[in-house]
Amino acid sequence: MERDAELRAHPWNFAHRRAQLTALSVAPAFGFTHQYQLPADWLRFVKPEDCHEWAIEGGMILANDAGPLNIHYVRRVDEPGLFDPQFAILLALRVAMAICEELTGSASKKQAITLELREARAEARRIDGQENPPEDRAESDWLLSREAP
Q: Which of 42, 58, 92, 149 could form a disulfide with 38 if both were Cys (CB 3.0 to 4.6 A apart)?
């Protein structure tokens, strides 16, 4: 549970996956025209490609696009050997924090681990983000207004 929660908390590069989903034959009751089954290893939806209106409900992606629907998502990674080293440290600290007070009876030890966890999380996310820079995005009017005379 701690592993999956930490994987869901950030779109980790090592857990990132792409999939092409086919619309199911049964449409949602209302609000959207198509539905797609989420992959079995799905933990967090990152984004769809070229789909602007969507929702996740009951293990399905609901959308108005006929598909196939190309998605980016964070998958469940069960094999520790596939973890990014920073993530492995982060996960160990998260588990330590979860069990520390019960094992040691010390709230101060739990607080110390919590601080260490925050620092490790910030470092791990920073490094992870450097390895996968954001995609080029079309400049919006708002962003272009920064450069106006």
A: 42
Give the tokens for residue 22.
């086919």
Residue pair 8/74 in contact by the 8 Å Cβ criterion: yes
Considering only CA atoms, which of 72, 54, 74, 77 is closest in space to residue 64?
54
Cis peptide bond upstream of 85, omega within 30: no
Look at the pTM and tell me if it is higher than 0.70: yes
Which pLDDT tens digits describe the chain residue by residue (149 residues)?
899 999 999 999 999 999 999 999 999 999 999 999 999 999 998 877 777 788 999 999 999 887 788 999 999 999 999 999 999 999 999 999 999 989 999 899 999 999 999 999 999 999 998 887 665 555 566 666 666 65
Beta bridge partners of 19: 71
C-beta of residue 63 within 8 angstroms of C-beta of residue 36 = yes
Q: Are 62 and 28 in contact (CB under 8 A)?
A: yes
**Helical axes 107-130 vs 85-104, angle rounded to 10°:** 170
Q: How far apart are CA 54 and CA 48, in angstroms?
A: 9
At 124, the amino acid letter reads A
